[in-house]
Amino acid sequence: MSKKEIILSKALELFASRGYDATSTRQIATEAHVSEGLIFRHFHNKEGLLEAVLLQGINKATQYIEPILEMTDPRQIIESAICLPTHVPIEEHEFWKLLYTLKWQRANYPQEAFDQLQQKLTAAFESLGFESPELEAQLIEIYIDGLATEILLRGGDPTALTQKILTKYFKNEH
Amino acid sequence: MSKKEIILSKALELFASRGYDATSTRQIATEAHVSEGLIFRHFHNKEGLLEAVLLQGINKATQYIEPILEMTDPRQIIESAICLPTHVPIEEHEFWKLLYTLKWQRANYPQEAFDQLQQKLTAAFESLGFESPELEAQLIEIYIDGLATEILLRGGDPTALTQKILTKYFKNEH
DNA sequence: TATTTTTGTAAGTGATTACTCACTTTTATG
DNA sequence: CATAAAAGTGAGTAATCACTTACAAAAATA
Fold it and tell me: Alpha-carbon distance A168 to A170, whole Å?
């Protein structure tokens, strides 16, 4: 793990737990055991550090969503989307907490990947003959956010809730 | 409007738009056209100002939820809960944005009123003979959060989505 | 009216902020 | 091996931070 990577991971950790504005570059440098100047050599400024942290996380997010975008069975698409939050490993929780915080704070919040997912979901509901596929897709997004909140914020077990949501769409199956 | 009230409203405005940590007491004082010292005379410190801002907002929130807690018809309880976000006037949007931001940042986030609502919803689903009333109540909470996000963050019109959710529970009525 | 209390201000305080700069060490390259 | 580029440091910088203090104006109270 290079010093650049250590800075990134410590920045993620502190940004997620205390917030971007409440975290100083000195704090990050101290905890990462590097000089404060190195942060600015690698990331130009604090905002650049945040963007770098987000970028590596977005790549992770894309890895979750991409397989769903390649699916053809509409039921599988919907089920996979609902189950997304349950497949996030604990070591990534901090990143997602950061992302959900920034969602309410920053205009440049990256949501391209999620938009693609929603389009895929809309198409899935359309092919299943749902009345208003766009609204149904939006509902799934709400479910995902709700499940993510349950996991990340309350630290709860989402399996029961996930099952409940799944049965709303696949009553007579399984 | 007293100077104390002007400080409170400007603090709410800035906390909601830029975030608590990114907003300085000097900024608040300047925009409120008062001396910075007056903030500390009235609210002791910055944290006290935030708590005062939250307190006056929580009282508003309780006013929304209290009528539902007094209802007896389970269907009316559920419907009223789902419709809650649509009844928030535009002038209160900033406060709710602040509350949703703090939800992800601060441990002392006040959620008593929402807990009461969820208990009421659980009882409502129970009396209607639902299989897992607690999970159903949790789902309603997720719907509320989702609708609030749609309104506050994306500035969208939530009526279509609200109707969609309502029909999930009251298919053969209206 | 005299006095106390509340409200308000201006000018500070030391600490901390993001960031820079001169410089050394390490790594890569011709 | 020589040289240049990259990585890394430590001691700075001006600006800003939350907050204090001494004091004046206004309001309330006696």
Answer: 6
B125-149 pLDDT, tens digit each:
999 999 999 999 999 999 999 999 9
Q: What is the pLDDT of residue A173?
A: 59
pLDDT value at residue B173: 59
A174, part of any domain: no
- The CATH code of the domain that includes A110 is 1.10.357.10
Q: Render pLDDT for B67-79 as a digit per residue (tens, 0 to 9).
A: 999 999 999 999 9
Among all strands, which nt has the closest C1' to B37 (CA)?
C9
CA distance A11 to A32: 9
**Kind and range of the H or E run holding B109:** none
- Nearest C-alpha of chain B: how many angstroms from A137? 11
Size of interface A-B (CB pairs under 8 A): 68
Residue B35's pLDDT is 97
- Domain of B13 in residue numbering reads as 3-169
Number of domains in chain B: 1
Q: Is residue B7 part of a domain?
A: yes
**CB-CB: which of A22, A97, A160 is closest to B21?**
A22
Q: Does residue A123 lie within any of the structural domains? A: yes
> B168 to chain A nearest CA, in Å?
9
**Would you say how long chain B is, in residues?**
174
> Of B55, B164, B70, B57, which is closest to residue B117 (Cα–Cα)?
B70
CB contact under 8 A, A19 and B105: yes
What are B61's two structure tokens? 């929130």
**pLDDT attached to residue A72:** 97
